Amino acid sequence: MKKKSAGDSASFEVLEGERSRVVGLLDFATVAHLLPLGSAAIDSGHASVIDLGGVTASDSSGLALLIEWLSVAGESKRTLRYENMPAQLQQLARLSEVEELLVAA
Questions:
Q1: In the prediction, which pLDDT does 104 show?
Q2: CA 90 to CA 63: how far, in whole Å?
Q3: Which residues, 6 or more positions from 102, have their beta carbon under 8 angstroms from its beta carbon?
Q4: Cα separation, 30 vs 84, whole angstroms
Q5: Nearest to 3 by CA among 40, 29, 28
Q6: What is the pLDDT along the chain (105 residues), one digit of tens a residue?
Q7: What is the average pLDDT score of the chain?
Q8: Neighbouring-strand partners of residue 13
Q9: For the residues of 32-70, what is the DSSP string, one character each?
Q10: What is the CATH classification number for the domain harbouring 81?
Q11: What is the domain count for the chain?
Q12: What residues pair up with 19 in beta bridges, in sequence order?
């Protein structure tokens, strides 16, 4: 099942099992469309692991999206782990002092 955001500049894809992935640009315009898609997948148990290897670029709104999804998982009493986080997002997380939230097992 593949769900695309407006403008096809980013997509949230539900894979087999409890895996999903994000592909494309994470910016203010795309995260608004990705937020409910990822939240629904987390709530339904289809996103215990989200692969970020397909993220081409991100700004601080992409970082905020990842933190919000962690909050959704916590509220749903589900686990969430990110894989293949791009260096740009890791650097943003480090500078924002939230890196430990995103790399926790």
A1: 58
A2: 9
A3: 66, 67, 70, 82, 85, 89, 90, 93
A4: 19
A5: 40
A6: 444 444 449 999 999 989 999 999 999 999 999 999 999 999 999 999 999 999 999 999 999 999 999 999 999 999 999 999 999 899 999 999 998 888 754
A7: 89
A8: 2, 21
A9: HHHHHHHHHHHHTTS-SEEEEEEEEEE-HHHHHHHHHHH
A10: 3.30.750.24
A11: 1
A12: 49
- Residues 98 and 63 sit within 8 Å (Cβ to Cβ): yes
Q: Are 61 and 38 in contact (CB under 8 A)?
A: no
Give residue-wise pLDDT tens across range 73-101.
Answer: 999 999 999 999 999 899 999 999 998 88
Q: Which domain holds residue 59?
A: 2-103
**Closest by Cα among 3, 8, 1, 11 to 54:** 11
Contact 20, 13 (CB under 8 A): yes
Cα–Cα distances in angstroms (integers) from residue 58 to residues 63, 65, 89, in the given order: 8, 10, 7
